[in-house]
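Cross-check.
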Amino acid sequence: MAWRGAADPTGPADGAPASHERTGWGSVIVTDVRGNEAGPLRGAHREPVRRPARGSGVVDLRGRPPRPSPEPDEAARRHTAFLDRVTAYLCADAGTGQFVDWGCPVPGLAAMVRAHRPGARVVHVAPPGVAGTLASSDGAVVSSEGGPSAALHRLATSGLVDLDEPVAVLMTRPFPADAPPGGIADLYGLLRGGGHLALASTAPHQVLLRALAPFHPVEPGAADLVWWPYPDEDVAARGSGILGALGRAPARGGGGNRWRR
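Predicted model, tokenized:
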């Protein structure tokens, strides 16, 4: 407890207590306002000051940066870049305006294709039981139920693609050496107006090229999808271990295709 004198000439006589201050959780200040005559003491209650918990003494004036978005998986990023190069070639150089996404392992293919060719037609071949649940805002959906032959029949009879015009089929989910995709020869016979087939595999070069037949390989044949369309021997960098290849089917006109309506 402390006493402090006041130097106010109109206040109490020298030596008389002028104020009384008590400190603690709250503060109470009592001031002598009696002047020359005694009177009641008036008190003023001061609310306590709430102080935040003490934290670090270091203040970052720049503020906290927003949390960055998660980086895409490296394998997905490489595959997306490969498909972007393939579709850019097909749209610009091959003049293709119809695409079939047959199990590509990365999303957004329709937007990718239309960035190179606005108005391109995109059809998705979905696994059995999934076709009805997929949103079709970026293209029509056909089920692969029944295997490649049945899916090809649906493509041929649905009218979703014009088989008298070039069609590009993208089957780029990598397959192992002992499980190549089926129905490639039937697909080749279906494309009356010509077209292309893209494949990807973890198998050696020759296995991938055999799976591509009877489509004719487009240069450079099979190459690591990181640097395709450059041949492997021209690149010293480390690849992904997944090969990509693009094959071509020439236009044959009408013919006697067994699925033609």
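Helices lie at 74-92, 109-116, 148-158, 184-190, 205-212. Residues 2-46 form one domain. Passed to J.P. for a second look.
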